[in-house]
Amino acid sequence: MNGAQHILQAFHRHNISTVFGYPGGCIMPLYDALVDDVGVEHVLCRHEQGCALAADGYARASGKLGVCIATSGPGATNLITGVANAHRDSIPMLVITGQVPSGLIGTDAFQETDVLGMTLGIVKHSYLIDDANTLPAIMAEAMALARSGRPGPVWIDIPKDLLLAEVADAPFPAPEPEENSHPELTQALAMLRAARKPLLYSGGGVSLANAEDQFRVFAESSTLPAVVTLKGIGNPGKHNPWNLGMLGMHGSRAANRAVDECDLLLVIGARLDDRATGRLDGFAPNARMIHIDADAAEINKLRPADLAIRGDLNDILTALTDALVHRPLAISEWQTQCRNWHTMGGFQAADNEEPLAPITGPAFIRQLSRIAPDDTVIACDVGQHQMWVAQHYQFDHPRHHLTSGGLGTMGFGLPAAIGAQFADRQSTVINVTGDGSFMMNAQELATIRRYNLPLKLIVMDNQCLGMVRQQQELFYNNRESQISLDDNPDFVAMARAFDIPALYIERTDQIRRGIETILAFNGPMLLHVAISREENVWPIVKPGASNRDMIDETRRTSPASKEHIA
Amino acid sequence: MTSQTYISMPSYTLNCRMSREAAALERLCQVIRVRGFRIARMAVESAGDHIDIALTLEGTRPISMLQSQLEKLHTVAEVTPGQASGVQVQTA
Ligand SMILES: Cc1ncc(C[n+]2csc(CCOP(=O)(O)OP(=O)(O)O)c2C)c(N)n1
Ligand SMILES: [Mg+2]
């Protein structure tokens, strides 16, 4: 068995059935081995960035390891954005790239780049194979590492000659699971009981730890008022009466107010990112903090914790739930207070009753949320439309909301949706994108067609880089600079060129029909939604300001903006 | 440069034991830089299958923050802090 065949065999052993890749010179031995392998489905995307982001979306939606493959040089560099995206959001990923033959490394050979050196800052770990006999151990270690503790991408760069070299195959024992006991739990409970205004603050770490169910049980049984970060959306479930929604820069007034006033913050699987906390010295000024996370380096990184617990969230949440079930917290006054804030300061957007009125982003997303089936996966892109999804779509599970949180990668949505559809061919997957973001990985329309994926695309077209335009309007004296996209291609014609049917809507009374039509269609379909150019995301915290200083809507979109959508 | 100022920059020593994998040193140096520290002195000694690195570092952020980031590196086996001191650093 050669190195390439061994890699495929390691996939089988670890139940990896789908990989995303693109061939080229130095990785050709692996592609040759694929010809004889029927157990691994290889998805050919149309750009390596598409491969990496599809692997990322696959991992987010399924909880499994995402795998992407590329050749040396330009293949590897094209992967980088997608791998950085996975790194910033702690997504378990295995990256395999071919490298020039061992003897040519360091000679500036054709398509040689120092992949190991170039990617150090965006991987959890990486290897350059220099001896074929180390490959089995490294494959096993890499797959375990990508998934363990705080997950992340692990990159294996392997010279072409070693893909062809004989490998002595020996199965490797799985690493022993960590045994943890948490004496801190008693103190955590004491702090919770002593608090008058405790608040549950959760992030993406909950689903990364596969602790969604246990978190849900804890959130419901503790009856703690809860806020979520962008990546924690869906953690408490959409029917939890104490869920105040997303906090932070585009969070709700209610969520930010609750953080401002709470006296105990119970942080679970979150790293206190600046987009969530705003200016740190104004963040939760009256609160003590319990920080529970899988990554020791996140504890005390930005804000000192009064109590830190590092370990498996499932174990910790189970213990906390058990302790609270017997004696619930007495916090009814605080709960009432939070509910009132939520009623007054939750995300609101009036549905426009005027049938001929132009479509606004929030109204459209609220309709989508009502019409789409319960377990729909929404893969967002980056910009205003992403924030409208976060604010106005009611998610019942964190794995239903795929969003590029840490890196904010435009072009994420379409390949991520492809990955999510491969994770579950039966599920409804919708990519909600903007006119700017859509063009960043539009080549992947060909991948949708090739594999006949039934996924739906919604392009929210405001003819501009809306999120940048908004910040120019609010923070740069409305001096617009390089944000106009009024020469966009005809997205409907573009989709049709890829043999994907498409529909255009621009009026409020067309929303329902538009959404129902694409959802009912048996195959991929694109909905091109013209929305007003001037609409902003409200509320907003100025970058660097405290969340307490949220700015609310200063001006309703005027009908004058209609002319932009003609 | 004629004018010289003396500022007090916190300085720390860290001892680090790591495996001899490719790029182990680069990884270490990169994390030190990205997390806001400068290397004032670095002694590297290889011993068997691992290497020992004695570092003197300068930076204004808490050294514990760097230590926990270094401990996350797969190649790092152990990080032990030495004495903290407010060394006079000469800057031009
Ligand atoms: C790859 C990349 N380049 C640039 C940015 C900066 N950026 C953030 S949002 C945005 C505008 C996105 O425009 P669009 O997709 O049309 O979404 P909209 O805000 O209009 O809804 C830009 C340029 C980014 N996040 N990612
Ligand atoms: Mg736009």
From TrEMBL, chain A:
<comment type="pathway">
    <text>Amino-acid biosynthesis; L-valine biosynthesis; L-valine from pyruvate: step 1/4.</text>
</comment>
<dbReference type="GO" id="GO:0000287">
    <property type="term" value="F:magnesium ion binding"/>
</dbReference>
<dbReference type="InterPro" id="IPR011766">
    <property type="entry name" value="TPP_enzyme_TPP-bd"/>
</dbReference>
<feature type="domain" description="Thiamine pyrophosphate enzyme TPP-binding">
    <location>
        <begin position="381"/>
        <end position="529"/>
    </location>
</feature>
<dbReference type="InterPro" id="IPR012000">
    <property type="entry name" value="Thiamin_PyroP_enz_cen_dom"/>
</dbReference>
<dbReference type="GO" id="GO:0009099">
    <property type="term" value="P:L-valine biosynthetic process"/>
</dbReference>
<dbReference type="GO" id="GO:0009097">
    <property type="term" value="P:isoleucine biosynthetic process"/>
</dbReference>
<dbReference type="InterPro" id="IPR039368">
    <property type="entry name" value="AHAS_TPP"/>
</dbReference>
<keyword id="KW-0285">Flavoprotein</keyword>
<dbReference type="GO" id="GO:0003984">
    <property type="term" value="F:acetolactate synthase activity"/>
</dbReference>
<feature type="domain" description="Thiamine pyrophosphate enzyme N-terminal TPP-binding">
    <location>
        <begin position="1"/>
        <end position="116"/>
    </location>
</feature>
<comment type="similarity">
    <text>Belongs to the TPP enzyme family.</text>
</comment>
<dbReference type="InterPro" id="IPR012846">
    <property type="entry name" value="Acetolactate_synth_lsu"/>
</dbReference>
<keyword id="KW-0808">Transferase</keyword>
<keyword id="KW-0479">Metal-binding</keyword>
<keyword id="KW-0460">Magnesium</keyword>
<dbReference type="InterPro" id="IPR045229">
    <property type="entry name" value="TPP_enz"/>
</dbReference>
<dbReference type="GO" id="GO:0050660">
    <property type="term" value="F:flavin adenine dinucleotide binding"/>
</dbReference>
<dbReference type="GO" id="GO:0030976">
    <property type="term" value="F:thiamine pyrophosphate binding"/>
</dbReference>
<dbReference type="InterPro" id="IPR012001">
    <property type="entry name" value="Thiamin_PyroP_enz_TPP-bd_dom"/>
</dbReference>
<keyword id="KW-0100">Branched-chain amino acid biosynthesis</keyword>
<keyword id="KW-0028">Amino-acid biosynthesis</keyword>
From TrEMBL, chain B:
<protein>
    <submittedName>
        <fullName>Acetolactate synthase</fullName>
    </submittedName>
</protein>
<dbReference type="InterPro" id="IPR045865">
    <property type="entry name" value="ACT-like_dom_sf"/>
</dbReference>
<dbReference type="Pfam" id="PF13710">
    <property type="entry name" value="ACT_5"/>
</dbReference>
